[in-house]
């Protein structure tokens, strides 16, 4: 048995890591350069974007041998270092040569977010390394360093207390607000733990949790060049429980994923698309993601239009096994459609409108053709669903 308790102050609960951020002149009055480090090399698991045009930091990471250890992650915002060719990777190596004069590095890695297509202003970045307090534990400092269009800081933390009296902590930070699609998002995410977790368990827990969280959210249907989720362990405690660790990592990634949806560019509502009684797991996942990613459904959510037609149409267009006679659609507990109630009467329509006014609610679709279920998460696109400038951010 074990107990999971929420903690304040994010990464600051994790023993063995140091982190913080500074302003290097790319943002007005806010951090744009950050780090996560340890005195000893640590194991790292990572999941990256499915976009074929992977940014330079990801390609740099993948140049290392499998299961390498690192002791330093350099983070920057305002420039994605994407679509910059070999020079983009060379710029990263140049930065680490400079940083190695300040602190001894082991297989350092970098994560970037911002505008695509521009080389890093590496001299300006390097000139700010001396500002780092490499022994700081500043959760807000490192979170702010990776924020771009985010309207709020995204982080969470938990303590796992085991039956034998031992305990470990897991915490995560994340950035992201737009270009979010059910294939990760425009996001950087770092999950830190002091648990004595084996590397194979880290890989399994991360992949499973990403599949059930970040790969289930949608804002505007695009997938970025820089999407990154990393799991790091200092192993500073002797405590570990495989089931508890997997559960808390899933809990953290789901919380952070829902924060991404809540902070979607222009989004005003978060909606869970719950699929029940689908033919199989693959079809349940397929239709849930189709609903979460549908622009027609997003505009209906924004307009608070309870017409079930866009929901049914998207289900049918997804190609899954379905039948209009077995389909049941509900908004929270309000029946919207079944074979005996195909037209919304005034009472149900008014109740549906009330549901759709809420900042979060559930659209439940019972396909009635099997026993599989799955949930994906989406939002409306709101008044900001426009091109706000000529730069393509990642």
UniProtKB/TrEMBL annotation:
Cross-referenced InterPro entries, in alphabetical order? Answer: Arg_biosynth_ArgJ, ArgJ-like_dom_sf, ArgJ_beta_C
What SUPFAM superfamilies does its record include? DmpA/ArgJ-like (SSF56266)
Source superkingdom: Bacteria
What functional role does this protein have?
Answer: Catalyzes two activities which are involved in the cyclic version of arginine biosynthesis: the synthesis of N-acetylglutamate from glutamate and acetyl-CoA as the acetyl donor, and of ornithine by transacetylation between N(2)-acetylornithine and glutamate.
Q: In which pathway does it act?
A: Amino-acid biosynthesis; L-arginine biosynthesis; N(2)-acetyl-L-ornithine from L-glutamate: step 1/4; Amino-acid biosynthesis; L-arginine biosynthesis; L-ornithine and N-acetyl-L-glutamate from L-glutamate and N(2)-acetyl-L-ornithine (cyclic): step 1/1
Question: What is the name attached to this protein's record?
Answer: Arginine biosynthesis bifunctional protein ArgJ
Q: Where is this site: Involved in the stabilization of negative charge on the oxyanion by the formation of the oxyanion hole?
A: 113-114
Family label: Belongs to the ArgJ family.
Protein residues bound to substrate: 148, 175, 186, 265, 389, 394
Give the enzyme's EC designation.
Answer: 2.3.1.35, 2.3.1.1
Location in the cell: Cytoplasm
Q: Tell me the Pfam families matching this sequence.
A: ArgJ
- Could you read off the lineage of the organism from its UniProt record? Bacteria, Pseudomonadati, Campylobacterota, Epsilonproteobacteria, Campylobacterales
List the residues marked with site Cleavage: 185-186
Q: Ligase among the record's keywords?
A: no
Location, primary (coarse class):
cytoplasm
Catalysis: reaction(s): N(2)-acetyl-L-ornithine + L-glutamate = N-acetyl-L-glutamate + L-ornithine; L-glutamate + acetyl-CoA = N-acetyl-L-glutamate + CoA + H(+)
Alphabetical keyword list: Acyltransferase, Amino-acid biosynthesis, Arginine biosynthesis, Autocatalytic cleavage, Cytoplasm, Multifunctional enzyme, Transferase
Q: What class of enzyme is it?
A: transferase
**Residues the record marks as active site:** 186
Binding partners and assembly? Heterotetramer of two alpha and two beta chains.
């Amino acid at each position: 048995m074990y107990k999971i308790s929420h903690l304040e102050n994010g990464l600051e609960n994790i023993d063995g890591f140091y982190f913080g951020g500074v302003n290097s002149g790319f943002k007005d009055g806010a951090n744009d350069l950050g780090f996560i480090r340890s005195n000893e090399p640590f194991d790292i698991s990572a999941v990256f974007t499915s976009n074929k045009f992977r940014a330079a930091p990801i390609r740099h990471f993948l140049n290392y041998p499998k299961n390498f250890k690192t002791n330093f992650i350099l983070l920057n915002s305002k420039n994605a270092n994407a679509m910059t060719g070999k020079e983009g990777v060379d710029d990263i190596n140049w930065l680490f040569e400079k940083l190695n004069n300040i602190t001894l590095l082991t297989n350092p890695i970098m994560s970037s977010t911002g505008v695509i297509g521009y080389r890093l202003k590496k001299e300006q970045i390097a000139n700010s390394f001396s500002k780092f307090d490499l022994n700081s534990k500043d959760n807000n400092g490192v979170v702010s360093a990776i924020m771009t269009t985010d309207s709020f800081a995204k982080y969470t933390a938990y303590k796992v207390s085991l039956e034998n009296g031992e305990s470990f902590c897991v915490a995560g930070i994340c950035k992201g607000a737009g270009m979010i699609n059910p294939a990760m998002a425009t996001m950087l995410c770092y999950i830190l733990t002091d648990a004595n977790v084996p590397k194979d368990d880290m890989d399994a827990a991360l992949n499973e949790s990403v599949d059930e969280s970040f790969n289930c959210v949608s804002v505007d249907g695009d997938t970025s060049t820089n999407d990154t989720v990393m799991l790091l362990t200092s192993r500073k405690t002797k405590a570990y429980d495989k089931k508890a660790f997997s559960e808390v990592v899933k809990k953290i990634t789901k919380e952070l994923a829902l924060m991404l949806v809540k902070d979607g560019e222009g989004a005003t509502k978060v909606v869970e698309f719950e699929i029940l009684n689908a033919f199989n797991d693959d079809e349940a996942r397929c239709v849930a993601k189709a609903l979460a990613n549908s622009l027609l459904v997003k505009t209906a959510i924004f307009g608070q239009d309870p017409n079930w037609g866009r929901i049914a149409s998207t289900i049918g267009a997804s190609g899954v096994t379905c039948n209009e006679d077995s389909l049941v659609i509900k908004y929270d507990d309000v029946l919207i459609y079944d074979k005996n109630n195909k037209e919304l009467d005034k009472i149900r329509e008014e109740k549906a409108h009330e549901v759709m006014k809420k900042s979060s609610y559930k659209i439940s679709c019972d396909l009635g053709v099997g026993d599989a279920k799955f949930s994906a998460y989406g939002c409306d696109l709101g008044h900001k669903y426009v091109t706000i400038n000529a730069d393509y951010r990642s």
